[in-house]
Design a protein that fits this description.
By secondary structure, the protein is an alpha/beta fold. It folds into two domains: 55 residues, Orthogonal Bundle (Arc Repressor Mutant, subunit A); 188 residues, Translation initiation factor eif-2b, domain 2 (Rossmann fold). 32% of the residues lie in helices and 24% in strands. It is built from ten helices and 17 strands. The strands form four sheets. Strands 4, 5, 6, 9, 12, 14, 15, 16 and 17 form a nine-stranded mixed sheet that branches. Strands 1-3-2 form a three-stranded antiparallel sheet. A three-stranded antiparallel sheet has the order 10-11-13. Helix 7 links the parallel strand 5 and strand 6. Helix 2 crosses helix 3 and helix 5 packs across helix 6. The longest helix is centred in the N-terminal third of the chain and has 13 residues. The protein is globular and about 50 Å long.
């Protein structure tokens, strides 16, 4: 069962494995060590990945079904960060798609995105203006990529970027398995004064091929509740030690409960300088 899940998804957290096989994380960790010794998978902080050092990207159907309740809770918490009249960029992904559904209720919002799914979620939101990038369609995640997408973001300046990815580590930051997607995500990040990463526990500790956002550029991480004393919790501690603000969305958020709990950050730092400087502002509160 463990090997089948890793092969299907590319990377699976210990927490998710324990839930599916209905056993403890300690037992799952022992089984993962055995499978690693046989060369069938590799261990990473808080999970298991396919052998070879980097995780691969699962197909969209698998991604959309994986950790759906956690993604909904993360999206609900992240939506609370956005105020009326702001301008934000939202990257491609199943978690950012959930975020977009909740941003439809924010009046006067401008959303710049390269994701067809994000645009579709906001298509009937009369109070939200949606700006699509140019680019070439990447069918596996319904995102626009390539030089057209990147050039359309030049000179743009917004308050926040909401980005997700395939892996997140304290050492390397956010990463993805596709070079074209990574390049557009970097352009989205460079257009924002603040970078907010949306990542559920299955992403923590996973390392994929192309870095999109180094840790020092991540202002804020919104994630779901880690198991006490788990490797995922340790990864959050490491990110907090590097100055990333952590907000943990409990499961109740998906059912309308408490939206966000801030993880203590021992050494807050100033936002990383934006390489593009002061570009063209979008929206009434852009850059603020």
């Amino acid at each position: 069962m463990i090997l089948e899940m890793v092969r299907a998804n590319g990377a699976v957290s210990l927490r998710e494995l324990a839930r599916v096989v209905q056993t403890s994380e300690v037992t799952v960790r022992r089984d993962v060590r055995i499978l690693e010794a046989e060369g069938l998978l590799d261990r990473r902080h808080g999970g298991a990945v396919l052998p070879g050092g980097f995780t691969r990207e699962a197909g969209f159907p698998q991604r959309s079904l994986a950790a759906s309740a956690e993604k909904a809770a993360i999206a609900e918490a992240a939506a609370g960060l956005v105020g009326e009249g702001e301008a934000v960029v939202v990257g491609a992904g199943t978690t950012t798609q959930e975020l977009a559904r909740r941003l439809a209720r924010v009046a006067g919002l401008t959303v710049v995105t390269n994701s067809l799914l994000v645009a579709q979620a906001l298509a009937h939101a009369n109070r939200v203006e949606v700006v699509m990038t140019g680019g070439t369609l990447r069918g596996s995640n319904y995102a626009l990529v390539g030089s057209g997408a990147e050039q359309s973001l030049q000179g743009l300046r917004v308050s926040r970027a909401f980005i997700s990815g395939a892996g997140l580590t304290a050492e390397r930051g956010l990463s993805t398995s596709n070079m074209l997607s990574a390049s557009v995500d970097r352009a989205l990040v460079h257009a924002a004064a603040e970078v907010v990463v949306l990542a559920d526990q299955s992403k923590l500790g996973a390392d994929t091929m192309f870095q999109t956002v180094p840790t020092e550029m991540i202002s804020h991480l919104v994630t779901d509740q880690p198991a006490p004393d788990s490797e995922a919790a340790a990864q959050l501690e490491a990110l907090a030690d590097q100055g990333v603000r952590i907000s943990v969305a409990p499961g109740e958020a998906a059912r309308g409960g408490r939206a966000r709990r801030d993880f203590p950050v021992p050494t807050p730092r100033s936002p990383a300088p934006n390489p593009l400087g002061q570009g063209a502002a979008v929206g009434r509160r852009a850059g603020g």
